[in-house]
Batch of 2 targets.
Target 1
Amino acid sequence: MKPFLPALLLLAALAGCSSNQKSGSQTPAPSPTPKPTEAETGRIAFQKMYIQARYWTPDAQGFLLESQPTKEISGIGGTSAVWSAHFGSRARRTAKAFVWSGTDAEDAPSRGTSPSSEDSFSPNNSSTQTFDIGFMKADSNQAFNVAQEHGGKALLDKDATVPVSYRAQWSSRDNTLNWQVIYGNSKLIVAVDAATGQFIRVEN
């Protein structure tokens, strides 16, 4: 029986070496590559949320579109990584907001399109008058260029860190869909016709 002992010890040693080689060859799985931030113009972001709104109710129409500057994307140039849109339904007499986010930044909502809870909606209220996306022929980047010519450039030349936000809403005063280009905390607000891309007025 003794001659078998060295052979058993040799097999055990070989098995240990093989096990060590296998464990040493294993490398940790690489961490997932962070997705790049997406920044969109208002019209493109609105269309993404409009699709989801139509799943909520087929007669959904938008009445307010707003951007949200972040530390990474300040809004200069007419794009934003975060947009929210409010939709109303005449049939249901309810409203619902959707948020689109193209970033994983800490100061932004989760990436993707997410809905809010329903709220009451009055189709006869001038502040919630719905509009057709076809009226938005001039996008937020075009509105930014117009606003730059009416005080925006001078303001950003003094302070390039001023965030720029955008709001699209039907104007009963002008009877058209307007862009409001808002510099900082309402330091300057420029109204631009979303249908024609023409300057309307400086509102602040």
Target 2
Amino acid sequence: MMPSEQRPAQAIGFRKPVVVTALKRVLVAGAVLWVLGVSGSCAKRDRVTTIYGVVTDVNLQPVEGVQILFAGYRTLSLARTDNLKTVLTDKKGEYSVTIEPEKRHSSVHVICQYFVDYKLQAKYESYYPMKNGQHISHCCPAPIGQKTEYNFTLLSR
């Protein structure tokens, strides 16, 4: 062999055992797939949001036909909300929705829109919200990825 031609280090005897190299590759590939699978499935599940509740009057009688709007809130935007879904309360005053907001939404706001129905607007002037059984003074963000109860008591004129 001429001096300008040198054999690679692997040919001289510095080869890693084939079994160890193959095992490392399998472990690394498995770890990558596990991370991608877990993060992908968790990210999707973590965004599923359920919001439910009851709308009543001050006598605790259910109010049917109240429109409940669910708006996705974006913190870094001039147009801060996107309407995600609208539902009406049933005969028992109940409503429920399960949605999966896009990643650009940081929370879902629940808006009791009794005032879109002229009969309800003539009868009620405001509402009193409760979140998960607790009276609240600010209304009505629901965290993404959780189940949240919002009950509304409509206040008579």
